[in-house]
Structure formats: structure tokens, C-alpha cells
TrEMBL record:
Keyword Transmembrane helix found: yes
Superkingdom of this protein's organism: Bacteria
Compartments where found: Membrane
Protein name: Exopolysaccharide biosynthesis polyprenyl glycosylphosphotransferase
Keywords: Exopolysaccharide synthesis, Membrane, Transferase, Transmembrane, Transmembrane helix
Domain Bacterial sugar transferase: 303-491
């Protein structure tokens, strides 16, 4: 079918959508039937954690070989503990630079083994050469280095083969769940390459395409429905990667899909064109990365550690003030101390945010039909002080500890909130892109003054622009700057109501 055929145009990934309640099955890389839970694969372990486990095995191999070396009848030159740690770290670093810990490399093949052994040999030769150049052959003799490498190599190889076998035996926990988008022949050819040395570490759930006829030429891949089906699957957290399998000549369609999918918290890759499969002896087809999930990999580990550390420190410091605030709220007006409100969080999923109640109980606005403004008669006396100082948001520390929020990130909005009389989603086309990360207690938009009511569309646009800038440029340093500026803004009671 030609790219200009109107039947191939892709519908926007916006609700309402036709969600795939059950999946017909798996063909490529199909795990045992008993592993299917109502047609779903369980959420896999993070690729970063898997890579860390394999790197730990490599470190153990190098360190263990160095410790065994202590029992050999060498005259001198035994490796000391600092040297054991340095050589292990050097081996892992060099292997990592060679791609030895990429997700696909963890499932075996020649490349990761070459990378691991290459890191070991390069590191050992480098250490031995440095010892000779610096005049320290007594501390670390070249012969000891060669013996060390000789004992570490089989341990390293055994660890790699064992970990690869374990990951292949547990596909439901180790493989990234992938959905193919595009033409049947292209998808079928790509799926056929994901075997043996071409393993990409993917569990193929099936194919989506607006042309149902694509299923007949997809080589038996499960047809999940039209492209709009992806919206429901991604929102339910059932997809880790979307692979675009279509002729590269369909440039407009590829670009449209890339633009739509880049607003979702999934990896988007482009499979090779059909020409790339014509050489049987060629290297495994490489997936071209079009969009990555923000704050992924080790950055996600750092972000999670930062969130829980800050939340625990904040809770320890604010426990007594929060108790006093709760007492003041209770004495000021009848009703509960805490106010729960539905907000849109990560991946467009709703959750209940905690706040100290600042309005009279009978005037509580759970759906934000009318935003609070300065001098609002619905706000209590204590509530006015809490809102002005932002202390009403302290209970959201518990949302952070529950994993629903980050300490710093885009502020969560209530579903249906309007700006200038229009829903947020209608004001900005990329509004949903701010939900690719967890919402935060404070964020870049807030420290820039873009908080409070959104009477005009311009206020929302400025806020969302700051949120997207934060997502695309995140770093621990940026979080520190936002945290300091937030504390200063709270002390000055700026832009709150």
C-alpha cells in the first residue's frame, strides 16, 4: 500500500481509545503460556538493575582471582586491596565503554563477551605497563598481572554465560515489552531476526496498525488493533518500547508517529529498512533510537535516591510543625484535617494528593470547578496562612514516600482544570508530555513564579514550557537549584494564594 493511502494515516493517541483488554498471544519470543496473566506480561526488572547485577559478577570475578593469587608461591608483587578494587573498576569501566552492559548485550552473544574480556586484558596490560613506567615492578610485577588475568578470564566468562542463560530463562522479568508499529512484512522480517546472536532483549507483544490487513502479512505476529490502542496499553504500564517497523520512504508517517509517541514515557526506536536484512552474514540489525524515556537508567536511580532522602529529611524536620498545623486546622473549622484531591500523575494516571484542608468543609472543591483566588471566601483563616506560605502542601511528603510523586518535578494538576475557560489539554498540544515523569512538590515553573490560578492561557503555556524544559534538561544540580529557590520563595511568601 502506498504511503499516500488515507487508510494508513495514524489517529492521534488521545482518549477515548480502543484498549486491548486481552492479547491473542505471543509468537516471537513467546514466553511459556503459564506466564501470561490475563494476556499481560509482568513489569520487567529495570535494565539498569540488570546491568548492575552483571557488572557485580564481573567485579567479583576480578576480585576473586586477585584474592586467589595471594596463595600462589610468588616472591613478591601480590595485589593489595586498593589495587583489587581499582583493577575491578577499570575492567568494568572499559567493558562498559565497549557496550558490554547495554540491555541487548546482557542476553549473550559474542560482542558482550569480547567487551568484557577486552576490558580485562586492556586493564591488566595498562596496570602492568604503568608499574614498569613508574618504576614499581616490586609492588606489582608484570608476571603477576598476566597470572591474574589468566585466572580472572574463565571466571568472567562463566559469569557472563551464566547470567545470560538466567536472563533467557526468565524472559518475563528481563526482557523489555515491545510493540511493533507498521507494515506487516517489515515487522515480520524484524521479528524473525530477534533470535540467537540477533537478540535485542525484547519480548514482542504484537503489532498495531490502522490497516487490519497488515496482520495477514505479519508472519503470525499478534494483531493488537489500531495505532490508537497504544494509548491504553502505555497508560496501563504494559509497554516499555515501541518499535516503528515501516519503510523509511514513509518519512511523513515516521515523523508523525515519532512526534506523538515522544510525549509518552516509553522508548521509541526505528527498525532497519528492508534493505538491511538482505545480507545473511551481516551484523545484528541496529535499532535507531528516536526518543528515550526521560530520567532513565542511572539517572532514575539517582533521582529515586534523591526523592526518598529528601522526603525522609523533610518528614523528620516537619513532623512537629505538621502536628501543630493539624491541630490549628481542626480548631479553626469543623471537618477533616487532610484534604484529598484527585490529580493526574505519571503516565497520565490519577492519584490522590494529600494537603492540609484550607477551605471550609462544606465548600470543598474536589474537582476544581473554580480555582482559588486571593480573598476567596471559601478559604478559612488558618487556610489563608497555609496557602500563603505553601505549608498546606507538606502532607505531600507522604505521596513522595508512596512513590506517587517526586520531591521536585512538574506540579500535578487536577483533571479538567481550565485555563482561560478551556481545558489544559486543549490549550497546549504537548500538555500530556509533562506526565512523562512523576509530579513534584515543587518545580521549575513554581520557582519562576508560574503558580497559582491560571486565569489566562498564557499562564498555563509558560508553566508547561518550564515543566518541559525541566524534563529535558534534568540534572541533580538543577534539582538543588530549584530546592534552594523554593525555600527562598516560601520564606518570602511569593505568588501564593
Amino acid at each position: 500500500m502506498r504511503p499516500s493511502d488515507p487508510a494508513r494515516k495514524d489517529a492521534p493517541l488521545l482518549p477515548p481509545v480502543a484498549e486491548a483488554a486481552t492479547w491473542p498471544g505471543f509468537v516471537a519470543h513467546r514466553p511459556p503460556e503459564v506466564l501470561r496473566r490475563q494476556g499481560r506480561l509482568p513489569r520487567p526488572v529495570s535494565p539498569t538493575l540488570l546491568a548492575a547485577l552483571v557488572a557485580g559478577l564481573d567485579v567479583a570475578a576480578v576480585v576473586l582471582a586477585g584474592m586467589v593469587l595471594q596463595y600462589f608461591p610468588l616472591e613478591r608483587g601480590y595485589p593489595q586491596p586498593p589495587l583489587l578494587a581499582f583493577f575491578a573498576a577499570l575492567t568494568v569501566s572499559l567493558a562498559g565503554f565497549a557496550g558490554g552492559y547495554s540491555h541487548a548485550a546482557l542476553f549473550g552473544g559474542r560482542r558482550p563477551i569480547v567487551a568484557a574480556l577486552g576490558g580485562l586484558v586492556s586493564g591488566g596490560i595498562g596496570l602492568a605497563t604503568a608499574a614498569l613506567v613508574l618504576g614499581a615492578p616490586i609492588t606489582f610485577r608484570p608476571g603477576a598481572a598476566l597470572l591474574w588475568m589468566g585466572m580472572a578470564a574463565p571466571l568472567l566468562l562463566a559469569g557472563r554465560l551464566g547470567s545470560a542463560a538466567a536472563m533467557q530463562a526468565l524472559p518475563q522479568y528481563t526482557r523489555q515489552r515491545a510493540v511493533l508499529v507498521g507494515s506487516g512484512p517489515q515487522a515480520a522480517r524484524f521479528a524473525a531476526t530477534l533470535t540467537g546472536r540477533h537478540d535485542q532483549g525484547l519480548a514482542l507483544l504484537g503489532l498495531v496498525d490502522n490497516d487490519p490487513a497488515a496482520a495477514t502479512s505479519s508472519g503470525g505476529l499478534a494483531y493488537l488493533g489500531p495505532v490508537a490502542t497504544l494509548d491504553g496499553m502505555i497508560r496501563r504500564g504494559e509497554v516499555d518500547q515501541v518499535v516503528l517497523c515501516m519503510p523509511w520512504a514513509e518519512e511523513r508517517r515516521v515523523r508523525d508517529l515519532q512526534r506523538k509517541l515522544s510525549d509518552y514515557p516509553v522508548d521509541v526506536t526505528l527498525a532497519p529498512d528492508l534493505m538491511a536484512y538482505r545480507h545473511d552474514g551481516a551484523e545484528a540489525p541496529r535499532l535507531l533510537r528516536l526518543a528515550d524515556r526521560p530520567i532513565r537508567g542511572w539517572a532514575a536511580v539517582v533521582k529515586a535516591a534523591e526523592d526518598y532522602s529528601l522526603a525522609l529529611v523533610a518528614l523528620a524536620l516537619a513532623a512537629v510543625p505538621m502536628a501543630l498545623i493539624a491541630l490549628a486546622v481542626k480548631l479553626d473549622s469543623p471537618g477533616p484535617v487532610l484534604f484529598r484531591q484527585r490529580r493526574t500523575g505519571f503516565n497520565n494516571r490519577d492519584f490522590s494528593v494529600f494537603k492540609f484542608r484550607t477551605m471550609y468543609h462544606h465548600a470543598a472543591d474536589h474537582t476544581v470547578q473554580r480555582q482559588v483566588v486571593a480573598g476567596d471566601p471559601r478559604v478559612t483563616r488558618v487556610g489563608a496562612i497555609l496557602r500563603r506560605t505553601s505549608l498546606d502542601e507538606l502532607p505531600q511528603i507522604f505521596n513522595v514516600l508512596k512513590g506517587e510523586m517526586s520531591f521536585i518535578g512538574p506540579r500535578p494538576h487536577a483533571p479538567g482544570t481550565r485555563a482561560g475557560g478551556r481545558p489544559f489539554e486543549e490549550v497546549m498540544a504537548r500538555y500530556a508530555a509533562r506526565h512523562r515523569v512523576k509530579p513534584g512538590l515543587t518545580g521549575l515553573a513554581q520557582v519562576r513564579g508560574w503558580r497559582g490560578p491560571t486565569e489566562t492561557e498564557d499562564k498555563l503555556i509558560r508553566r508547561v514550557e518550564s515543566d518541559l524544559e525541566y524534563i529535558e534538561t534534568w540534572s541533580p544540580w538543577l534539582d538543588l537549584v530549584i530546592l534552594v529557590r523554593t525555600l527562598l520563595a516560601v520564606a518570602r511568601m511569593r505568588n501564593a494564594c
